[in-house]
Amino acid sequence: MFSVVIPGRPCLTDIVAVDTQPNGQATKFAFSFPLDASFTDLVVFFLPGTVLPQDTAAAIYIQMPDPNAGPNGPQFKFIGALANEKPSAIFNVRPNPSPSVGATRSEAEEQDEMLDEGSSNLSGGATASGTVTLGISIEPVQNVAPQLAELEAQKPQSTPSTDLIRQPPEQRQKKEVSTKVLAQRIIGNAFNFLASFASDSSGKGQEVVPLKSFQDWWTKFERRVAMDPSFLEKEDPNAV
Known about the structure:
The protein has helices spanning 107-122, 141-153, 159-166, 169-176, 179-194, 211-227; strands at 2-5, 16-20, 26-34, 41-46, 56-63, 77-82, 88-92, 131-140. The protein folds into 2 domains: 2-155, no CATH class; 167-233. 32% of the residues lie in helices and 22% in strands. The strands form 2 sheets. The chain has a 5-stranded antiparallel β-sheet. The chain has a 3-stranded antiparallel β-sheet with strand order 1-4-7, with no helix packed on it. Residues 178-234 form the Hikeshi-like C-terminal domain. Residues 90-126, 152-177 are annotated as: Disordered. This is DUF775 domain protein.
């Protein structure tokens, strides 16, 4: 049903069913693979033809080697989920650090660790070891949704503001153009075009615009919109 890709490694297909319902349908699966220092990301995806039961999702959990784990061993951590509407995803994961959480190290200790890592890499050894277990559990959507919400809440809150800062100036200007301004610019565009066709054919001081001129303006206006849908949102929208 599922497969896993770890950058730089062959695609994992040796999935193991770890829980089966009385009807014989498996609901929990696991992949195991060795940990190395370069492991930071993985991709989980549905194999072709995989369809989850209605109102369910595939919750993804990971168990990383942790030398500081208690007697029960490392705990599984929820990292995301897949669904029929989202059959694949990339997950960013990092090995647990060797020191206990909250421990403070001196600059000299950190430099020593960096030297040890460099020596290990040069000699062909790995700076991280152990076995990673990836668990996939088919669960009701109502059970997975709160976990996804909690995971989303843990993400840095600076991302939306960063996106706004990086937004191009023309996009910011585009959002500031209101419906009223657009209507005024359409009317102004039509007036500027039709004014050159106005004439006092009756001699009564009342200028009249032929209907064909309006039809010509509308044809050109439609063509301009098709070529550049945002031209009315720019500073000088009057030229057709």
